[in-house]
Amino acid sequence: MSNGSPIRARRALLYVPGSDARKIEKLPTLSVDSACLDLEDGVALNRKVEAREIASRALQSMQFNCERLARINAVGSGLEADDLAAIVPAKPDGIVIPKVADGAQVQWVSAQIANLERAQGWKSGEIGLIAMIESARGIVNLREIASADARLRALIFGAEDYAADVGAIRTRDGDEVLFARSAVATYAAAFGLQAIDLLYLDFGDIEGLRREARRGAELGFSGMQIIHPDQIAPVQEAFTPDASAIVQAKRIVEAFKAHQSEGKGAFALDGKMVDMPIVKAAERVLARASIKV
Ligand code: COA
Ligand code: MG
Questions:
Q1: CB distance 41 to ligand 1 below 6 Å
Q2: For a Cys staple, 90 with which of 56, 65, 116, 121, CB 3.0–4.6 Å?
Q3: Domain 12-238 in CATH 3.20.20.60
């Protein structure tokens, strides 16, 4: 897929360690919206250089049928500039920046990309950015991060790093990350960005995965990070409005139009009140159902 439209589905964003050529070679056989070649925490420290080479070669030589992303190491790690210098010339669709703490980090990465684009003679601005919010500072600075740069397309919530940063203990219900998780969805919506939810680490537990994905959709996320091919279908399904939701949304929008022309703003449908926010939610379902995948 080329990066033609700013609206992408990104229902599932699959990480693949940049150092693992075997897993990367599997990507063309997988029906996933986005693939992210990871140079950060999925790669051991002594394989960082090799991962850059493998990931860059794969981006240049392989036929992907999904969005092609690469995750660099955090700004300030000492690895980030070399990551960008190796990866940007391979022209990924976007760069994922982990552990974003403030807006200046996003702007720094954007400026580095602009320099590298110029060196290649490319039009500036085609490579997008996705910022990961996974620390207390990231949450506190959400407003400046979300409005930091025109390349920014989406925010990702990283629950494990966030919990580690604030000293929270992860639980099954996730109350300890709910404030931060909702904040990411809220700021993404406020600044017209996509919101991509946390990971479900237990890749053998598909029922648990479905539950967590549904919860993310309920909180306003339009997609979720994943780590294993078995997670693709359940997650993409959870973030796609099903046929009955589409039918119901169409009914609401049509009934709304009919009542509007009769001069009624609020009305009853199936024994429940429908007014503007319900109609907007229905329109969102229809918009989501028609997004390019
Ligand atoms: N991308 C592509 N292919 C993957 C994959 C991934 N993320 N995870 C697993 N596969 C492949 C495996 O190579 C295997 O294929 P094979 O049978 O041809 O060898 C198949 O899917 C089944 O994998 P399985 O044996 O169940 O898992 P595993 O033990 O090989 O790997 C993980 C488990 C967690 C190590 C692996 O899923 C992984 O590396 N995930 C991404 C980790 C990552 O990037 N973390 C950082 C971001 S959070
Ligand atoms: Mg992380």
A1: yes
A2: 56
A3: yes
